[in-house]
């Protein structure tokens, strides 16, 4: 092996070591015999269920919003498209606590909270607030991936279908959407992972209340704050296992499109 290869491999080895070291540090802190009761505890079970409910609801909302919006941006001449795309990418780089603070102010009684309250809708410090926060951070991921997927589909297929009498809606549903499906699915997996691990914005909007708004990231935070490291690590390992599963799902989606 040439000297250049060793130089290039050194950073790879360092990054690989760091990732493995973090995983080993987490897994080695709690013995296997003590881990199972912690994972099966009432609190961990509630956190897993809450994480799945809120993240799946956020994913559904994100995809309903992102897919049509991405199609318009990819297929229609939208005025100010560059500026619009830049604004839509802001949640990707916005610190989660800043996003949460903005949502907290937006949903307060001095803003949108008052009219929503007239309809009996209260989002702050509720599981519904967690869904809103997770949707906000996930929708940009889904939109960006969906837009890229639609952009890679040859517009000629849709034009041919339109020339044969297909309506714009039929072109979207029957031609472009199926052809872009794999890219959209990959974006959905990434968006779900983003929602599942969301902490900062959720903390600001939904709060950290045990057995009410306690998602897995929130359970980790609460148990670290009270000094219960073993339960925090157990919840972290469960969250890691879910993240690994999503990573495997993403690889399957991408492999099927190769």
TL;DR of this structure?
With 258 residues, this protein is mainly alpha-helical. It has 14 helices and no strands.
Description:
The protein has 258 residues and is mainly α. It is globular. The longest helix is centred in the first third of the chain and has 34 residues, at 42-75. α3 (42-75) crosses α13 (216-225), α9 (155-163) runs antiparallel to α10 and α11 (181-196) runs antiparallel to α14. The protein is 79% helix and 0% strand.
Secondary structure blueprint with pairings:
Elements: H1 3-27, H2 32-39, H3 42-75, H4 81-88, H5 90-93, H6 96-106, H7 113-118, H8 127-151, H9 155-163, H10 168-179, H11 181-196, H12 200-206, H13 216-225, H14 229-256
Task: From the structure above, extract its key features.
globular; mainly alpha; 0% strand; 258 residues; 14 helices
Task: Round the Cα radius of gyration to an integer and report it.
Answer: 22 Å
Strand fraction band? under 5%
Share in helix? over 70%
Shape: globular
In DSSP terms (H or I, runs of 4 or more residues), the helix count works out at 14
